Fold these 2 entries.
Entry 1:
Amino acid sequence: MLSGILTLTALSLIFGLLLGYTAIRFRVEGDPIADQIDALLPQTQCGQCSYAGCRPYAEAIANGEAEINRCPPGGEVTMIALAELLGRDPMPLEDEEAAAKPKAVAIIIEKDCIGCTLCIQACPVDAILGAAKQMHTVIEAECTGCELCIPPCPVECIEMVPIKDTTDTWRWPLPNQNSAEVSHG
Amino acid sequence: MANVSIHDFHGGLILDDHKALSTQHPIAPVYLPKTLVVPLQQHIGQIADPCVKVGDHVLKGQLIAKASEYVSANIHAPSSGTITAIDEQPIAHPSGLNALCISITCDGNDKWTNLPDSILDWESTEPQLIRDRLRQSGIVGLGGAVFPTAVKTNTQNKPVNTLILNASECEPYITCDDMLMRTDPEKIVTGAKILQHIVGAKKILIGIEENKPQAIEALNHAINNTDIEIIVVPNKYPSGGEKQLIHLLTGIEVPSQGLPLDVGILCQNVGTCVAVAEAVLEGKPFIDRIVTLTGDALAKPQNVRALIGTSIHELIEHHSGFAKACQRTLMGGPMMGFSLPDIDRPIAKGSNCVLSLHEVEPTQEPQPCIRCGECVKVCPALLLPQQLYWYAKSHNFDQAQDHHLFDCIECGCCAHVCPSKIPLVQYYRFAKTEIWASEREKQQSDLARRRHEFRDARLARLEAERKARLRKKKEVLENKPKAKGDDPKKAAIEAAMKRVAAKKAAQAAEEKSS
């Protein structure tokens, strides 16, 4: 009887210490789930999900505060990837219209730009180049197409231009499927 | 001809080769058109950078676009003339899209520029210098992939045991390599020797399909007194696939997603050998190639030497002419080629064949897959085509990759035997380009994340610096009045009043003295 109690106490003490030690020794910085979610998000930082950027949205999803269908630029692909990662059920996108928009980049109509720097301050990825009272321009390769620069512009000189396919980025279309195949699939 | 055992590869098809159609005439000499439209992206890798301006006069063989990165290729003017445009033009690409091209209006003189010196003593020249010459001359692989030869022959100190010359040309209708071997076997052998010298290969094997007896004879004649071996392989499509040919000749299997170099083998097309020989011995840049013009729509199907940038339409009109209405034009052969929306598009470095068809089998409506497994039997890459099909169709790209989608060589055997007429290869191409696109998107989103995080960090730092400045100011202000023991404003006013009083006193003293 006594030896049993002593053994169990000793065991629980050892394991408790072991667990305590590992909790300190192998402590994970940050939130790994939020990191994984963030890695799936398109990083447009556009705020269409109503959060201040992709990272805050990822944290909100990780904390169970937000649904996984609020990212229009990511579209269905991102939603399904999130559903798979989190073991949740796929759901229809909240804003299908925004998701269907083709990918675009912002272009500054340079003759209209007054050099107010408001768009530079709004750009979440520092993709606009310019200085006060100097003409601004967008670094196309770094623009995420978030449209955050459009509302602050006082002279409406920023346009969204859809990205054209080139022979490098062109994708083979899915072959036409007849009805029999669709019903089978 | 050596009597070597052939190691058969899995699958494949014996097809009606239609090759006799275009081998009745010798290779026609170059036709000089009025204008040339030279695409800047003719090779695998980065697009070349134009180094001429509109209005410039260029000579034949002059560099007009430079390789922009390591995996890229120089492009030269195919004839002398004036640059009239550098803009987007229709090119021969499955997308039918336009791409950046340099247009040259030829002056008809066809005057050569000063070519680099011949390297006649190539046997005692550093391989690096010869590779530089290949790079300078814009030589690319002519077997189909159009990969820059200077890059492919840079073995990075990996040992090369065997150099294999791919003379198989297994796809129906195409005969440009066949005719080249009949016409110029010596140059092929010289080119092969140069390539052997560059990569340090111990032996050279030539793999050729048995349906080219004249080419085999010509090569046999040319390899006399050399240690090159010709191995005749049976007619079976796709024996010209790089990995398939290696297996046929050596019995070695190139690992999945690996390169032949990993097993000590380098493959080169016979056309590439000729281009290499011309670049090294004559300093000639890559400005023309042999193209097979064939198909039942043409009056005189034949092989022609064509300048890069010549319009396909003009080339056919000049050399072959249409006998019947052309229903469909393919760039490449019937198995791996793609159909062109129109033929006013230029010949590029990789254009081996233009196939103009009058009689086209009506495309049958695809039926559901019945899982008969015929495609599995013929797949030369040992894949499961039907599984890949299901995965591609359902956008299940991870699974498709797990089933080695990227080992598919798009030979078209599976689609050819499919009783349901499912365009299988198109599904694989769809899946591949979707996967590449999502990889590009991933790279872009990673870049955006880094930039966003950097910006956040910068804003936080600026905010912290601003706060620190304010705090410092506050501290200074708080410390000052404490020293004088009074309200700072009052102290300032007092100080000002004292100064005024002192001034007044000084003025009064001055007035008195005056």
Entry 2:
Amino acid sequence: MRSESELERLYDEHAQALFAFLLNFTRHEADARDVLQEVFLKLANRPQLLDGVLEVRAFLIRLAHNQAIDLMRRRATREKNYDQLAAESETVFAPSADPDEVAFRKSLAEALGELPTDQCAVIHLKLWEGITFEAIAEALSISPNTAASRYRYGIDKLRDRLRPIYEELK
Amino acid sequence: MNTENFEERLRNQPLRPIPTEWREEILAATKVAVRPRRPSFDAQPHLWWRELLWPSPQAWASLAAVWLAILAVNFSTGNGSQVAAKGPQQSSPELIAVLRQHERLMVELIGPHEKPAAGCLKQFQFQPRSELRNNTLTV
């Protein structure tokens, strides 16, 4: 059993990043919470999981990613109205008092929601976690080239989708 | 639209903070989950067999049903087989007469059955190796 203080330290260091990643991936706060709790339950029950792990953040993202995929598969088979749920997805960005920023973030959240989940995951990790394609590849169990190409495809789609509002707000 | 500027703009968008109350809730859940449990055999004696049969109790139940069916069939046919086994031992005089007649017919057809000579049997009697070697040398 992993000690409570160690779990608290892991939570304080990584929970915010995992939450943002999971929220962007699942688009649902409740799902993000479920997966986050599952990750910490695993860490508590199987302390040997982190033995010899050098990049703890990348390892935890991998764990969270796998759990999230499992959850989404279960949900997809359980619920017929999955598309409707996706349409009601929650924003991953902080609220803002600036109306222009609010509009841009809303458009960006919608555009991210329209991306395939594999591209969305890579873009999130690259842009908002600032990790390398090698680390992304390790976290998502793909090759670095695949990570880079998914990022490019995703960014191109976002740019096309957001071009009007981006030009308007510039 | 400049790609680097666009990516920089995206990168600067602040993400939602994690709800603060989750920390206590999630860490409390981990404490509950890893609380040391007493051995299930002592704590819940009525449930130990569930652990034994997990994860496929239906498969185990089917196997048990098959065994019960085999036992039932075995018991129901057991007396008949014993009778059949005992049957040939009770030979009647008529049966012996028929068998002897068959034996006579066989002798007429293929000749009398010759018994092996006693000398042949002696060759295969066990002897110490040293004596076998002496016999071979003598021959």
